[in-house]
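pasting for ref
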Amino acid sequence: MRIACAQYAVRDGDPDHNLERSLHFICRAAAQGADLIVLPELANSGCDLGSRDLALDLAETIPGGPTAEAWRIEAERSGMHVVGGLLEREEDALYNSAVLLGPEAFGRYRKTHLWNKEKLLYEPGGELPVIDTPLGRIGLLVCYDVWFPEAARTLAVKGAEILCVPSNAPDDWVPEHQRCGDLTMLDVHCIAAANANRVFAAAANRVGDGYLGRSCVVDVTGGVLALARATEEGLISAEVDPDRARREKRLTDLSHTFEDRNPAIYEDQSQEDR
């Protein structure tokens, strides 16, 4: 199968423009033979909204909201699966969510690890679901979530073969004089999650207005299969075999990604830390 990541400028507070751009990239990915496309975080609304009232006006229900419904229709028309970030509303509660929509699949995830002032706007999600699709088993994370190894590990232990990470990463908090190479910390965390859990990872990041770009598709080895530029809009993609995420957990005759874990030690340590 082919995974694509769409990297483009999301316009804060302009859902009509954002929907048009997302559909443009969904259609491009379908034309290039992609089976799955990942779109950025908060792709319907943008993230710099200024007020809770505006956020409530821009948020939509899942399923059935205008962006999610347009993505569903396009996914069914093209036979492709779509993952993207959405500002979600459930009554007066707001969530920074991700959806997976496809001809035979639906899934929703609400961002669990809220960054900075997101804590003042959104409710945190309460679960890490793995979604069964004809393409394989997919886990969803949103941007800052991938900074937490426990989140990716939980999805992998539950059987996820592909991690999809819609993102709006504006900075990676690395001093300029310490930067080396083209990778951002978003890429590095995706590489670590893929390598540590022997799963594929695909992150679609926003560009423009200081956002870092560098969307990526990462192999189960941690090798980078595709990497976007820092500032340019575009589409990257790579061929993957989800079955490898099941077959390649054993690293040597005596080493296994999951069998070598020692949860009792981790639990004891976490209790001591409290």
